[in-house]
Write a structure and sequence with these properties.
The chain is α/β, with parallel strands linked by helices. The protein is built from 11 helices and 10 strands. Helix 2 links the parallel strand 1 and strand 2. InterPro entries: Aldolase_TIM, Class_II_FBP_aldolase, FBA_II.
Length: about 290
């Protein structure tokens, strides 16, 4: 247990039919709180950092936080760079110690995306790290990456060739999912997940997890979505928790930052625990 590779987390999840929360943190408080939720529920967890977070905090500081907070941790955890179209940032994070990256070449022609992801896989392997890949942009802008236009879905043959030729360890298809907050329950192409898993045996990453129903989560996880991304829910929880506490603080006229931090941390931890319970990963830590 402790810090492990991405495959050591997602392969057992796909085999045993549960999903692992992959939660985007934004600072030290959210990192510590998500880890606390995983420990409390005895669940593996994937900690994700966006390119925006890496650049705003700095890779050295982020990785130092990660090392300090995971020292002696008793559940499987890994550190993943989410949706990164910049090869220089991929290299920077791999060199610092991230052990999983998503090269986002979804805006490139498939052939160029494939050429580059093959290079990223080779680079990651040299660091003992794993790679998530995608060929279609997931609708919605997240941390300044993405588009509000849904890209054309590739055929099964094209997708399978991409997975098998590139050697990616996890694949993130577009199935009608989207980043951000859904205006209504989305209509998903669940069969596409089944077809990809049956053809490749590679675990699927479900993006746009915030706002899906429990029934959708359960079905997609059973089909092979072993990695389930959560980003918007953390941001909403974090900011609303701050807002609610500060409004109450203003009314009382008592200004105590540590009390604010404890309040927000408790809410973020509860959010993480809720997704662990929904995805079936509680108690899965060996």
């Amino acid at each position: 247990m402790g810090v492990v590779t991405l495959k050591e987390i997602v392969d057992p999840a796909m085999r045993d039919g549960y999903g692992v929360p992959a939660i985007n943190i934004v600072n030290d408080l959210t990192l510590e709180s998500v880890l606390a939720g995983a420990v409390e529920r005895r669940s593996p967890v994937i900690i994700q950092t966006s390119v925006k977070t890496v650049k705003s905090i700095g890779s050295d500081t982020l990785y130092a936080m990660w090392k300090a907070m995971t020292a002696g941790i008793e559940v499987p955890v890994c550190l993943h760079l989410d949706h990164c179209p910049e090869r220089a940032v991929i290299t920077e994070c791999l060199d610092k110690g991230w052990n999983s990256v998503l090269f986002d070449g979804s805006t490139l022609p498939v052939e160029e995306n494939l050429r580059q992801v093959i290079e990223v896989v080779a680079e990651a392997r040299a660091h003992g790290a794993h790679v998530e890949g995608e060929i279609e942009a997931i609708k919605g802008v997240e941390d300044d990456v993405g588009s509000d236009e849904e890209s054309k879905r590739q055929s099964l043959d094209v997708s399978v060739n991409f997975v098998e030729t590139s050697g990616v360890d996890v694949f993130a298809p577009s199935i009608g999912n989207a980043h951000g907050v859904y205006s209504k329950t989305p209509q998903l192409d669940e069969q596409r997940v089944t077809d990809l898993v049956e053809a490749t045996g590679v675990p699927i990453a479900l993006h746009g997890g915030t706002g899906l129903t429990d029934e959708q989560f359960k079905d997609l996880i059973a089909r092979g979505c072993a990695k389930v991304n959560v980003s918007t829910a953390l941001k909403v929880t974090y900011m609303k928790s701050n807002l609610a506490f500060l409004k109450e603080t203003e009314e009382k006229g008592k200004w105590d930052p540590p009390s604010l931090f404890r309040h927000v941390a408790a809410d973020v931890t509860a959010m993480a625990e809720g997704y662990v319970d929904r995805f079936g990963s509680a108690g899965r830590a060996a």
